Amino acid sequence: MPPPHAEGKDLLPALDHIVRVSAGDPLLRPHQMIMTGDQIYADNVSDPLLVMIQQASAGLGMAAETLPAEGDPADTALRPGLRQDVLLKQAHFTSGHCDSHLMSFREYVGMYLMVWSDVLWTGPVPRFEDVFPEDTAILKDPARRKPGEDVYRLIVQGLPYRPFKHQKAIAERFERWREEAPVLEEFREGLSLVRRALANVPTYMVFDDHDVSDDWNMSTEWITKAVIADGLGRRVVRNALAAYAVFQHWGNTPERFADGTPGRAVLGALERWLAAPGAADDAALRTGLGLPLELKYGVQVKPPAPDMLTYHYTITWPRYQLVVLDTRTWRRYVGNRGVLLLDDGPIDAMVAAEPPLGDDAVTIVAQPTAFLGVPVVEQIVQPLAKAWGGRYEADAEDAWFHDDASLHKMIGRLCAAAQKDADGVRRRSSSCSAGTSTTASRSGRGTRRCCRTRADPTGPSRTRARTGRRRCSPRSSPARCAMRPA
Questions:
Q1: FRET label pair with 252: which of 36, 37, 385, 429, CA 20 to 30 Å apart?
Q2: Nearest alpha carbon to residue 439 among 342, 351, 374
Q3: How many Å apart are CA 457 and CA 262, to the nearest integer?
C-alpha cells in the first residue's frame, strides 16, 4: 500500500463495505486478498508518523534500540526528518525519501500496528512545535525582520517568506510536517474499517523492496554494502525481515513457525534479543532470517537450508493453486546487476513445491513484478528514467522484461511442472498466471495477454499453456484486488 501520507484516497477501507454487504452470499463476498509487496513503506515515512510510532512502541514497553552507527546512538537520538545522511552514508541505502526511514525493530513493529489498525492512534497527530521546540524558536527569531514577519508566522499564515541560511532546512521540515499532518488524520479515519476487513478476509502476503527499504537487493553494490557488510545497513535489514516474519509471513505459513522449525528459532532468538541484546542472538536472527553471508561468483552464499526461513510458498485448494514467488532474496548477480530468479535450485523450490492441479484448475502466481508487464513502461519509460536519473530512480532492473533468460526459464518451469495427459501433452491451458503489484508505476487494470507455447510439437514433451495478467493497486478499487470465485 502507498505511504499513509501519500496523495489521493486509500480505497482499502472500502473493502469493509464490500464484505459487509455481501457477507451472507458466498458467491459474492471476497474469498481472499493477496498483497504482493510494499505493504509498508519503511523508507518513505512521514516525520510526524515516526514520532507517533516511537511513542506507541514505547507505550507497549519496547525499549529504545542501540544502533551500530557512528557513536552507537539509540533510535530516539536519530530524530524524525534528520536521518538521511546516516542512512545514505553509513547504511549505504539508496532511497530518495529516507529522512524518517524506519531503523529499529520496534519502529518496524510500530509501523505495522499503525497502518493496519487504529488502536494505537490514541491522540491527534503531534505538532512540530511540541516535538522540535528548539527549531521552532529558530523560526520565530525576529532578528532583522519587521514585527510579525518572522519565518514561523509567515509559514503559518501561508505567506511568502525568505529564511536565513540557518533557517532554511528547518523551514522545509516545518512546511512538510504541516502538509503531512492533515493527510495522516484523514488516513486514520479509515483504519477501523481496514482492521475489520483484514479480520474477515483471508489474506496472503509477500514482500517487495519497500517492506525493507527502496531498491533492496537490486544490485551487487546494494547487497554487498548494505546487507552483507557488518554495519548499520545489515541491522536495519535484519530488523525489517524480523518484523516481516512476525507480521506477514507467520500468517502465510504458520507451519514454518511450529516447534523445531527455523521460524520458531527466529521467534526465540528475537524474544531473547529484545530482553537483552547480544551478539549470539543477533547472529541467530541473521541465520534464521536467511541473510546472505557473502557473494561468490554472483551467487548468494546463505546459511544452511534447514536453519533458515524461506519466503516463497504454495497453497493448494481443490481447483485453485496459489504460487507465491520470492523475487528479492534469491537474486543472482551479473556484474553489478541483480537478476530476479535464475538459479535452478530456488526456481525448482518455488514452482515444484506441490504438484500442479489438472487442466480445469487455475494457478495464480503472485509476485511483486508481473511476468507480462506494461510494454510502454518497461520498454520506453523505465529506460529513459534510468538514463536520466540512474538505476535506482528507474526501478528498471526489477522487471522480468529485462531478464529474458530468467523469464523464459521461470515460465518454462511452470508449464513443464504440469502432469502429462494421455496424449503426452502437458497442459495448463486454463491456468492464469497473474502477477499482481502494488507498485503504482506498473499497475494495470486487469489487462490480460495470452500466449501458447509448445516445445517440440512432434516430441513427447509437448507443453501447452495460457497465461494472463491481473494487477491492481490499493489506490484502485479494492473489489478488483480481492479474489472471488469464478
A1: 429
A2: 374
A3: 45
